[in-house]
Amino acid sequence: MPSVPMQATGLSTAKTYGRLAAPAPPRVAAGVVAGSSDAFSREVPVQTRARRQPSPLWARTGARRIRVLIVDDHAILREALRGLLETVPEIEVVGDATNGREALDLCDRLQPDVVLMDMVMPGLNGLEATRQIRRRHPKTKVLILTGYMEDEQIVAALRAGASGYVVKRSDKEELLLGIQAVHRGNTYFSSSISDGDAINQYLWQAKRPEPKTGYDLLTSREREVLQLIAEGYSNQRIAQELFISVKTVEAHKAHIMTKLHAQNRTDLIRYAIKKGLVGLDTAPDLEVGDSREAS
Fold first, then answer.
1. Is this prediction's pTM over 0.85?
2. Same domain for 256 and 134
3. Which pLDDT belongs to residue 72?
4. CA distance 84 to 233
5. Are 29 and 1 in contact (CB under 8 A)?
6. Alpha-carbon span 287 to 270, nearest angstrom
7. DSSP 3-state assignment of 289?
8. What is the pLDDT of residue 151?
9. Pairwise CA distance, residues 116 & 72, whole Å
10. What is the CATH number of the domain that holds 148?
11. Are residues 202 and 223 in the same domain?
C-alpha cells in the first residue's frame, strides 16, 4: 500500500508517516490512522486516498484548543513534553502527573481532551490508569506514549481503552499527528508499528472476546495491590497508600495469589515484571521478596 505524502500539513514535507490500516483490500477502514495525517473521512478506495492531498494539520478555525494532560514518572520527559507542546498554539497543556493515580485525580478536576500516558509508572501503571480514566471520563482520549513496542503491550493498551500508541523515539510531527487524530475520534499508531497487517491484527485481537485468565480476572483494586506488592511495598504501606485496612490488603493478596496461581510474593513480583506492570529498576530484590510476606 503506498505511503501518504505529508505535503500541505504545515509540519514537514520531507517525511512520510506509515500507511493506512486496511482490514481488507482495496478499502481502508475509516477512523484508523497509522502514522498519517489523512484518513479522517468516511471509507474511500485506497487509490483515491493515496492521491488526495491532506488538509492542513491544524486547520481548526474557531475551535478551542486541545487540552492535554501529560503523565510520566520522569520529570525531565514531562518538562520536555510540556515545552514542546506549549509551542503549538492549538494545544493547551492543562497539567502533568507522575503516576496513574495522580492522573485519575487530575482528570476528575481538569477534564482534559487527551491524556499522554506512559505505560510503566509507580503506584498505578498506565494500563490500569487508562482503563479507569476511560470508565470515568468516556470523552477523554488516551494516547499511549511509551518505549515498549511488544505486541502484547499494544493489544493490552487498546483493550484498556487507549485510542492510540506512539513510541517515545517518534519526532514532534508524529506526536502532534497522534494527538490530533485521537482527539478527532480516530485510532493512531506510530509509523514504526504502522504495518497494515499488524495494525489490523492488533485491532482484531483487542476486540475479540477471550476467556478471562490470569490478570484479566483481577479487579481494579487487586491490580493496584499487585503493582504495589511488585514495587516492594509492605502490607502496612499498601494499606496507607490505598486508605484501606491491613486485613483488606491481606484479603486482596490472597485473592490475587489464587487467581494467578502464585505461591508467594516472589511469584507475584516475577509475574508483574513479565507483564510489564513494573520495571526491573522498580521491583525489589527477588531474593528478599518473601521477607516482606508478613510485614
1. no
2. no
3. 96
4. 35
5. no
6. 11
7. helix
8. 86
9. 8
10. 3.40.50.2300
11. no
Between 260 and 64, residue with greater pLDDT: 260
Residue 24 to residue 241: CA distance in whole angstroms: 48
184, 207, 230 - which closes a domain: 207
pLDDT digits (tens, 9 = 90+) for 88-124: 999 999 999 999 999 999 999 999 999 999 998 988 9
**Is 201 within 8 Å of 207 (Cβ atoms)?**
no
Task: In whole angstroms, give the CA distance from residue 27 to residue 57.
Answer: 23
Distance CA 205, CA 222 (A): 24
Is residue 273 very low, low, confident or very high in pLDDT (cuts 50, 70, 90)?
Answer: confident
- CA distance linking residue 252 with residue 220, whole number of Å: 11
Angle of helix 126-136 relative to helix 220-230, nearest 10 degrees? 160
Can you read off the three cell numbers belonging to residue 1?
500500500
Distance CA 131, CA 218 (A): 13
Cell numbers of 163, please? 485510542
Which residue bears the cell 515545552?
83
> From CA 266, how far away is CA 196, in angstroms rounded?
40
Cβ pair 54, 37 in contact under 8 A: yes
Do residues 67 and 113 touch, judged by C-beta distance below 8 A?
Answer: yes
**Last residue in a domain, options 207, 232, 250:** 207
Q: Give the structural domain span for 258.
A: 214-292
- Only one residue has cell 499487585, namely 226
User: How far is the C-alpha of 184 from the C-alpha of 261, rounded, in Å?
Assistant: 42
The number of beta carbons lying within 10 Å of the beta carbon of residue 258 is 10
C-alpha distances in angstroms, 38 versus 45, 57, 64, 134, 157?
A: 13, 9, 21, 25, 23
Q: What is the CATH number of the domain that holds 266?
A: 1.10.10.10
| Chain CA centroid to CA 27, Å | 28
Same domain, 269 and 191: no
**Are 71 and 194 within one domain?**
yes
